[in-house]
Structures are given as structure tokens and as C-alpha cells.
Amino acid sequence: MILTTQAAPDEPTPLGVHATARIRATRTGKTTTLPLLHGSGPFDLRRDHPYGDQARVCVIGAMNAPLGGDRLRIEAAAEAGAHLHVTTATATIALRGPTPGHATYDTHLTVAEQASLHWLPQPLISAAGSNLHQSCTVELAPTARFVLREEQVLGRTGETPGRLTTRLTVRRDGHLLLDQETRYGPAAPGWDGPAVLAGHRATGQLLVVDPSFDAQPLPVRLLDDDPAHGQAALIPLAGPAILVTALAPDTLHLRRLLDAAHALA
């Protein structure tokens, strides 16, 4: 389910940038090609050098976004047999905008039969005064392979975070695999308490969906060389997938934990 916000008929359209970027990867012979690569607004899409039969795309920010009132969306599809890798050039910073309204940043990903998609953006930073609703919706075919890494930083150095709501919904073969929502910052009860971030300011997760997990599922594991430097838990889902949730004091330690979990998977 994609979280979108639409003004009621009797309300004015919110100010801000409205932009959609689209990526489509298809199988052509022994390689993956990109017949659709369309960016707009803050999204500048660049082809990277392919890796084997995997096409690679980098999303470059062309302006400050998301700001309050912005409505941003990215759509990416890996068609049958295609292999796609998408990342971003730099971290995304959610900032206070010219309007008091929140911004939305929606991502919709589709992976077809025998295709794969690695969605590995740089961290999202929730700056003081910002208000962002972020969602990611994923539709997977039964034989699709998928890797997603999400990282959030709550506030820049020496500042409190803004308001951040994130939702991740994943369906495989039409059946719900994962649906979770988290909220951080002012007005989110207990977000910084011992049951949630426990004083840490960087949080993230790694989702790996692979049909081979049906035959050889991974066990539950806790990754915490030093709790002061962060902790991560690897948990198998009710399907051929694992979810890693990590907390750390900064992005460096967070990435180390997620990379270690990815190596296990």
C-alpha cells in the first residue's frame, strides 16, 4: 500500500514540488537494458557501469528535497529475467519547507519472475523542523530476488530530529510478506526510549527475499560486538526472506552492522 496525501476538494493544493521518477529494466539477450529512465524535479537519473548482466542506476539530487509540502515518488520495475541495482549519490536530507504541511516520499518497486532488484539508497537524514511521510511498496513475483537497505539518521550533529514516519509494505505472489510502520521525533511517544532507539540516533534495516531460503532458512541471530556501538537482529520472516533491524550511534557503525548481516545472508 502506498501512502499518499491528497487535498480534500474544498482545500487548496499544498505548495511544494510534485515530481515522479521512473526506471524500467528489461532483459535483452544476455544483458539488462534500461528502456525507461525518466527523472524530474529533484531526481536526476544516471546510468552507472553495468556489473555482469546487472544494470545499475544512480539517483542524483538536483535540488534540496524533500521539503515541507513536496510530493515525491520513484517507480522502479525489473521485468522478467532483468537484474537492476539502484543507489543514490548522497544522503537525502528532509528539511523544513515553506509550508507547515508534511512532505511525502513514496517508492514503488516491482520485480518480475526470475528478476532481481537491489535497492540500496544512501541514508535519509531527518533534520530539525522537518516533517516527512516516507513509504516503500514492493510487489514481488514468486521467483524474484530482492534486497533493500534503509537507513535513517535522526537529526544532524547537535540538533534534534524532525518528524519522520516510514512505512514498508512487501507482497510476494500477491500475499503480504511484511507490513510495518515506524514513527520518530516530536509527537511520537517513546521513540527515543529503551524500547525503541535507546538513545541511538541511527537506525536501519536490511530486507533480503530469496526463494532459496525456502530450502535453507537462516536462524535468528543477534549481531552486537559492542552494544555501545550498536546492535542488530537478524530474523527470518514467514516466507523466503530475512529482516535485519539495526540501531547505532552513527551511520558508520550502522552500515557495518548491516553489511555484516548482508554477508551472512
TrEMBL record:
<keyword id="KW-0996">Nickel insertion</keyword>
<dbReference type="GO" id="GO:0005737">
    <property type="term" value="C:cytoplasm"/>
</dbReference>
<keyword id="KW-0963">Cytoplasm</keyword>
<dbReference type="GO" id="GO:0016151">
    <property type="term" value="F:nickel cation binding"/>
</dbReference>
<comment type="similarity">
    <text>Belongs to the UreD family.</text>
</comment>
<protein>
    <recommendedName>
        <fullName>Urease accessory protein UreD</fullName>
    </recommendedName>
</protein>
<dbReference type="InterPro" id="IPR002669">
    <property type="entry name" value="UreD"/>
</dbReference>
<comment type="subunit">
    <text>UreD, UreF and UreG form a complex that acts as a GTP-hydrolysis-dependent molecular chaperone, activating the urease apoprotein by helping to assemble the nickel containing metallocenter of UreC. The UreE protein probably delivers the nickel.</text>
</comment>
<comment type="function">
    <text>Required for maturation of urease via the functional incorporation of the urease nickel metallocenter.</text>
</comment>
<keyword id="KW-0143">Chaperone</keyword>
<dbReference type="Pfam" id="PF01774">
    <property type="entry name" value="UreD"/>
</dbReference>
